[in-house]
Amino acid sequence: MNRNFYRLSIFVTALYIAITFFQAIIQSRQGLKMLYLKAFVPWFFLAVIMNFAGSVILARYYQHKKYKAAFSTVVAVAIISIFYFIVAYHVVTGNALAAHYTAAYQLMLLAAMAHAIVLVFSKARERIWLKAAGMFGLILAVTQLSFFWAIMSSQSFQLRHTLGEVQQWVAVVGSLGLVLYIKNFRDELNAMETEKSEVTPYLLSNTVTVFTMMVVFAATLFLSFNLATDKRKARLAQNRPASPEAERLALRFEARVYVNAQGDTLPYRLMKPLNYDPLQKYPLMVCLHHGGAHGTDNVIQVEGGGYAQVLSDDAYRAKYPAFIFVPQCPVGSSWGGITQLPEIMPLVIEAMATLEKEFSIDEKRRYVAGISGGGFGSWHFIAKHPEMFAAAIPICGGADPSLAKNVVNVPVWAFHGDQDQNVPVGFSRDMINAMRDAGGNPKYTEFPGEGHNIWESVIQTPGVLDWLFEQKRK
Fold first, then answer.
1. Cβ–Cβ < 8 Å for 227, 43
2. TM segments (predicted)?
3. What is the DSSP string of 296-348?
4. What angle is formed at CA 106 by the lines to CA 180 and CA 69, rounded to 5 degrees?
5. Phi, psi for residue 391 in degrees, rounded to 5
6. Which residue of 108, 179, 229, 345 has the smallest Cβ count within 10 Å?
7. How many C-beta neighbours within 10 Å does residue 415 have?
8. CATH superfamily of 239-470
9. What dihedral angle (degrees, nearest 10) is formed by the CA atoms of 426, 429, 435, 439?
10. Per-residue pLDDT at 244
11. Mean pLDDT split into 10-residue runs, the chain, 474 residues
């Protein structure tokens, strides 16, 4: 090995630590919306490349030091990490591999744990900083797995949300463990007395090394700036104050809060049918808002609830008498179907059950509709509880196509714009095609040339509400 190898190793490791911290800061400000920023995809590939480069450097170093066990496990970590990144990328951009995310994440942590154990107990432990890195990595992997299992097993969405935030920062702090590798490379560099060392294709000249570092650093700065300044979706992550129009819309509904036995709370708005008669049975319309209405104010979800606005008009109330149920999802959570965030669907289902005990609701005529994040939620609700819903209207949403077999008997009318840059149209196309392949007969309307904001086109589509309220579970 020559000095340039260790210099490049220190540079790559330090830059990866900086990337990890920068991403954590952006994610803490924007939450899940960061994943749908246009600038996130190139940033994601930068992180993957830097991660892979670090693995290659370690593998070459272990090979040089003849640490066979460490070499084998770091190669395994690199391969499994590539698999995890592929799954994670598809979850973000297409949701097609969402069912494999849990397994991929756990497998990656187990591989990291195996590598850490090898550093502690194999020949590599002769290097004090490698042994320390192994001990640190083992503690980190066990902690991450414990948090992950706790999140998956918890029945409280608020607890899952809190654990998820803590786990995120544990991972960030854990990246500091890479400093131990920097210390090891630094010691190797200081110990070298001459440049007359083994020359291999991996070792670079001074000029090439400096040039490579400059290019990588410039690319990182450029992509970091793009990610930090991409506002196309960032403002949706803010818990913005209610506008006068949002306040006016919300006043048509009764403000309520559901609290379950664990103390989890769900603010929601409810509108009863016009001239409600408890001796009659009425449909229940569940309206799931988009990402811009996340919060706890129990106001802005009506404005973001799509059909909640339409059906609150007296003319529509007279034509389609129904209970309009508009829950509000807190910031940092989801309705479901989005792997990276804790879901509040169980809490919504519980609240629905209490409403059905209180009011005269037709259990065969439950409907769900939503936009964007609410579109994902609509798919998720019928996929997890197909026996509950008589129909669904997911708008620019999506789901894992492997779940299509669960919803073949649920009438669906989905909508999407073919130029949607926030939620790619492939989300809807894949789910609709999977439903048809499984024997279902969903309706699908795609708007050519339209992007994410298709709501006006949706409400101008004739016959949607007539179709919806005709649906009834057998």
1. yes
2. 40-62, 69-91, 103-121, 128-151, 166-182, 203-225
3. SSSSHHHHTSTHHHHHTSHHHHHHS--EEEEE-PPTT-BSSS-TTS-B-HHHH
4. 50
5. -170, 165
6. 229
7. 25
8. Alpha/Beta hydrolase fold, catalytic domain (3.40.50.1820)
9. -140
10. 85
11. 86 90 73 67 88 93 95 95 86 59 88 96 95 95 88 64 75 86 93 56 61 84 82 44 84 94 92 95 96 88 92 94 96 79 90 96 97 94 96 94 92 93 86 94 95 91 96 92
Cα gap 378→411, rounded to integer Å? 12
Show the CA angle centred on residue 373, arms to residues 391 and 154, nearest 5°.
95
Backbone angles phi, psi at 301, to 5 degrees: -70, -25
List, in order, residues 6 or more apart from 413 with CB less than 8 Å away: 391, 392, 393, 442, 443, 444, 445, 464, 467, 468
Q: Which two tokens stand for residue 453?
A: 């904001």
Q: What pLDDT score does 158 carry? A: 60
Tell me the three state secondary structure of residue 259.
strand
44 sits in the region (left: phi over 0; alpha: psi -120 to 50; else beta) called alpha
Residues in CB range of 350: below 8 A, 6 or more apart: 258, 260, 266
Strand 391-395 vs strand 254-259: parallel, antiparallel, or unpaired? unpaired
Residues of the chain with CATH 3.40.50.1820: 239-470
The rounded distance, in Å, linking the Cα atoms of 331 and 272 is 27
